[in-house]
Amino acid sequence: MKKIKQLSIYIVLAAALAAGCKKLDRFPETSFSDADFWNTETDLINAANRLYQQLDARWIDNRADDAVNQGGPDQVSTGNRSVPNQSGDWSDRYDEIFTANNILEKSGRAKVTDAIRNRYNAEARFFRAYAYYQLVTRYGDVPLVLKTLDIKSPELQMGRTPREEVVTTIYSDLDFAGQWLPKRADLPAAQYGRVTKSTAWALKARMALYEGTRGKFHNMNNNWQNHLQLAVEAAQKVMGEGHTLFANYGNLFLEPGEGPANTENILVKIYGVSNTNLLLGHNNSRDLENGRMAPTRNLLRQYLYSDGLPAWTTENAPSATRSPLFVAEGAEPSYNTVLDNRDPRVAFTFFRNGDQAYQGPWVPKTSLGSRTAFAPKKGFSKIDQTINGAGTLDRILIRYAEVLLIYAEAKYELNGSISDADLNLTVNALRTRAGFAAKLTNAFVAANNLSMRDEIRRERTVELALEGFRYDDLIRWKTAETVMPKEILGAKFVAAEWVGTNANSLNLNADGVLVVEPASTRRFRADRDYLYPVPFNEITLSGGNVVQNPNWQ
Fold it and tell me: What CATH number should be reported for the domain holding residue 144?
């Protein structure tokens, strides 16, 4: 039998009812005809465990301007993708939705208290909301399926549900989850990794910020103010749950940051032996070593200098004060110059020339490991690097820092201003954790002709760098049409440092900076690319009731 995750929404909902594949026997919750299941709390736990196993870890993301793959240009990033026949971005999410709906329908059989039943129903509704969040942010309107279907169900050919109705359902699911899930402080250490009230509220804050800002900047007429208010309120709930920022920014993404003692973690995919899987591994550290997500100069330009000032002006702040620490790119004397005197998070995100990196000291090159000649440090584990395909470093999917950034952005976009007190709670708390002495205040912004909106967005970009947020942020801000077509740049070529590299083999601009992808090879169609194309197979299986997104053919 074909793996469930490879099937479309329409096939999976029918075929899963007859699942008898031995591959799934180890997960009794997927043996839907098993009359001996759905009786005890243990059965509910095992059923819910499937939701954690299906959770998409999102290790590698090269869709925006912040990172590139060693294998070549990303089709989303360059604007050169076409409509796929099938896509896991669609079908895998409906696989997860089916699992959640199945739990919600069958949990009533279990001989448990309502409180226990509602706890695991809350887990199911959280993951259903998470799947729909991913669908609606990519595709817009999508079929809203809230029950399991059989092969005769007319809903197999349902059309697309308006996004507002889908988002309302996401909020409802997360409100239920927030009511019935345990508090973070009450979760036993042995259950670390299971979702809590904080997880539900944090996802609601993320969804509401996305929908509020997308509505505002895309003129969606969706009462975007209400969404932003929900984002503020949900973030405040999380902020009242006793979460703290992990002391060391770099170690947050490494082995010292794992486990229940780190209260910054809100949703984590656990690898290795855990309470939700027998053994699950990954290859992320080797992928980083092999250049599958090499950071770009485009990302590096976002980082402030140590005085809190930028290197570059922006459209919103054309007269911004440029830091006197800035060295013009053509005058950079060494590879490390652009990394010097910066926000300390640069040192936790980029390897410097000479740093002990993957197989020894990092040496700038493009032949192996990085198309940009910059090397990603964030999340690289020497321990995991030694184990091919069996890395066990956990993947953080939601953390407290993001919640603080959601609060700051939602407050600003809702009111057109933000107080210094709120900046201290959010942006400046993150800077303090990173050892960045420069603080963001209204007076500093005014004195240096900065844009508060830009500075809040900048903080989000650098704090969450290489964690999979950049593309979705550009989409909701409606800045993708200006950012994405720009050239992708790498390191400055300095012959004495680039051992074994011939300058004639590189595409360098007039400043001697590596041009990784020229602007002529990149595009973003504003009339099309703000939504993903619906896979052809989903349109066909719906009998044409699921229609394609605008201008995708």
Answer: 1.25.40.890
Res. 379 pLDDT band, cuts 50 70 90: confident
Structure tokens at 344: 């300390």
| Domain assignment present for 10 | yes
Q: Which two tokens stand for residue 274?
A: 């855990």
Q: What is the pLDDT of residue 360?
A: 84
Task: Please say whether the beta carbons of 507 and 493 come within 8 A.
Answer: no
User: Could you tell me the CA-to-CA distances from 148 to 94, 144, 308, 487 in Å, in that order?
Assistant: 11, 12, 53, 46
So what's the pLDDT on residue 236? Answer: 99
Shared domain for 235 and 94, answered yes or no, is: no
Which DSSP letter does residue 399 get?
E
- Whether 489 is covered by a domain: the verdict is no
Amino acid 174 reads L
Q: What pTM does this model have?
A: 0.92
Amino acid 375 reads A
218 is a domain residue: yes
Question: What count of other Cβ atoms lies within 10 Å of the Cβ of residue 425?
Answer: 15
Task: Give dist(CA 536, CA 548) in Å, integer.
Answer: 8
419, 446, 462: which is the final residue of a domain? 462
Inter-residue contact 482 to 523 (CB < 8 Å): no
Q: Give which of 301, 291, 292, 332 is closest to 493, Cα–Cα.
A: 332
Does one domain contain both 117 and 150? yes
Q: Which domain holds residue 171?
A: 1-59+77-181+526-553
Indicate the helix (H) or strand (E) that contains 396. strand 395-399
Of 446, 462, 478, which closes a domain?
A: 462
Model pLDDT, residue 19: 34
Out of 36-45, 158-167, 378-387, 493-502, pick the least confident. Answer: 378-387
SS3 1: coil
55 & 197 share domain: no
Question: At which residue do the structure tokens 């009998």 appear?
Answer: 543
Within a domain: residue 98?
yes
The sign of the CA dihedral 262, 266, 270, 273 is positive
- CA distances (Å), origin 330, targets 170, 295, 508: 50, 20, 11
Average pLDDT, the chain: 90
Query: Rounded to an integer, what distance in angstroms lies between the CA atom of residue 471 and that of residue 479?
Result: 10
Q: Indicate whether 133 and 219 sit together in one domain.
A: no
Residues 208 and 266 in one domain: yes
Residue entry with tokens 């699992």: 99
Angle of helix 197-217 versus helix 470-477 axis, rounded to 10: 40
How many separate domains does the chain show? Answer: 2
